[in-house]
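Let's practice the habit of predicting before peeking. Look at the sequence and jot down your guess about where helices and strands might fall. Then scroll down.
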Amino acid sequence: MCGRFAIYSQPPELSRRLGLPEPDAGWAARYNVTPGTWIPGAYRPDSESDLALGQLWWGYRPHWATGKAPEPINAKVEGVATSRYFKGAFARHRCLIPADGWYEWLAGPDGKQPHFICREDREILWLAGIWSERADGAPGCAILTEPARGLAAEVHDRMPLALDDDSIEPWLDPDLTDRETIRHVVRHVQADAITHWPVSTRVNRPGNDDATLLEPVTP
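Done guessing? Here is the structure:
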């Protein structure tokens, strides 16, 4: 599961990491990103387009789907390449969602305690995603999840698929469409690179969005 995350790293830094021209402006830091909002993403609008760092709607519903079709925010790696709903986007419309970390909730005797999960070195995480044009023409995305690994498994049984730096280029390559080839050339970050700590329950309210949400607390 990945239902909340933080992105405070700025476009110039992300563009350099992606080999893109440095943009003129940044964006407002966000410490409590929720589904159903615009989020930054690296993607190609079509197979002939150059890679761009743009905005994607966090909610995946292909334009061909009916009005009552689901609008998932996540897609499991175990079935994304074969599911009718996702397989077209997995083959042709893969994207990356930059995040400085994400939140999960650990059940305890006094309720659910939120934790912030990130790289131990605080480097940016590149979350694997898929996108599709929605009925309104906007690009909508879902973040891929996998079984939790390392310390992340202490908090939740699933985690976003965070790719290592060497996997960025093949993941975004529009000429790679075969799922077995993709599986063999794409790697997630090492489990021991991930850490977490408990944070304030203020993050439970989407309206709370400031840097203090990341500060460790004593449960």
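How did you do? Helices lie at 11-18, 87-92, 168-172, 179-185.
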